[in-house]
Structure formats: C-alpha cells, structure tokens
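Observation: inputs received (chain + 9D3).
Thought: call the complex predictor directly.
Action: predict_structure
Action Input:
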Amino acid sequence: MKYTVLSLFPEIADAFFSTSIMAKAVSRGVIEYQSINIRDYALDKHKTCDDAPYGGGAGMLMLLEPLSRALAAAGAGTPGKRAIYLSPSGRMFTQELAKELAKEQELILICGRYEGIDQRVIDLYVDDEISIGDYVLSSGETAALVLIDASYRLLDGVISPESLNEESFSGGLLEYPQYTRPEIYDSIQGEMRAPEILLSGHHENIRRWRLKKRVEKTLANRPDLLRRGMEKGLFDDETCKIIDEAASVTEGL
Ligand code: 9D3
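Observation:
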C-alpha cells in the first residue's frame, strides 16, 4: 500500500510516518509513503494557496489550481490510485471502510485547510469524501492520520492474524477491565487491589466475570451497540441473559 498525503503542512504526516512502528513498516516494504506540499504547486511569487469564496461567506477556500497541479503530480485519476478528500461533509469513516481501503494499491489523501476546497477539484479528482466523526477539527491532517492508522494495521504482516481475529470476534461488546502487577497498589486514596477472581486461577469464573464486565461497560458507554447486537442476533444465550439482568438494574436499554 502506498499513502500519498497532499497538505499545506506535510510535516504533520511526515512526523507520523517517522514514528517507530510506521517507519518499520516503511523499511520492511509493507507501506510506501510520499508527502506533497501543495504550496510547491503555487506559481505566483507569494505562493498563494487560498482565496475568498465566490458568492460571499466567511473564511477562505483552498485555491483550485495549486491543488489540482499537486493531484496531477501525484497521479490522481490513474488506475489503482484512490483519491480521498478528508471533509466534515464526507461519509462516516468506520472499521468496515478501513478494511475496504486496506485493499487498495494507493491512497491519495487530500488534507484541507481553511473552510474547504473548490468543488471542481472534488468533481475532477476525488473518489471518496470521508469524515472521521461528528466533531469539528481545524483541518484535515489529523483526520488523514486516523484513516492511515486504522487502515495500515490491517495490511498483511503488520499485526498478527490472531490479534485481528480476536477483534472481529469481540463483536458488539466493549472490552473488560484489565489488571497487571502489583496485586495491591498503595495509591494516594489508599490500597487498590486487583480483583481477587483474576488471581484465583478459576478460568470459568474469570470468563464469566469478564463477560459481565463487558456487558456493564457497554451498557454504560455504548447502549446503541447492545441494541444493535440484540437486533442482529450477535449475542449467545449466556450474553443475552447477562444483558437482561444488567439492563433491568438500569431500567432497560
Ligand atoms: C463553518 C462551517 N464548517 C463546517 C462545520 C466549516 C469547516 C469545519 C471544519 C471546514 C473545515 C473544517 C476542518 N475539518 C476537516 O477538514 C475535517 C473533519 C472534521 O472537521 N470533522 C470530522 N472529520 C473531518 S475530515 C476533515
């Protein structure tokens, strides 16, 4: 997989690809990386990359021409290259979409600054407009890093197949709480013990305890996941029973 990042601040993505895990994936040949500074494709003496929107309105837009020259330089529009514009108006990024993107030969990621880009760039070059969630970022760079992070770890040889398998089997429930040494931690609030059951060696009791904790956590933080999992028939009888019990305590889903 090749990631090509188009940005007015390429040093943000460069720093991410210099981190040890990404740098290792690059040196092992699992991924390739190129950053393109859009400003290098501005031709006037001030290297202008923004201007006011036609029709009025607040803020500035990225200029069409530097961006389209940068995209042409990246080879956007040629087979095997998927051009993605990170945009608050895009469709939602999900694990499912990450899996789909991980199958591509090359992703060209367009990071917007200011209020956005000229629609003609989207019409000409962009294959997907993607948002990473319902909150307002100041620019597209961090969103591109999220997309890269979620997709590259799905490539062959980055993460062990067992870890990925475990993820897909964890279907519909959040994780249980985890503990390691020391057994007793002398905190400023007093002694904090690791749950005794985890030290008991009773594997069946531990399994049941963890399942209960997962249900309680999911009910508290993501009741939408429980409702969806129930509708889809994702849970076995044991899990359904624990959900019913936990939900009755908290007055239902
Ligand atoms: C004033 C209107 N704003 C729309 C809510 C304009 C606007 C907000 C934020 C224009 C650009 C941005 C910068 N955000 C991104 O580039 C972005 C983003 C985001 O803000 N949230 C979630 N996903 C993404 S992907 C790119």
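Thought: report the result.
Final Answer: The CA atoms of residues 187 and 193 lie 10 Å apart. The chain has two domains: 2-161, 166-252.
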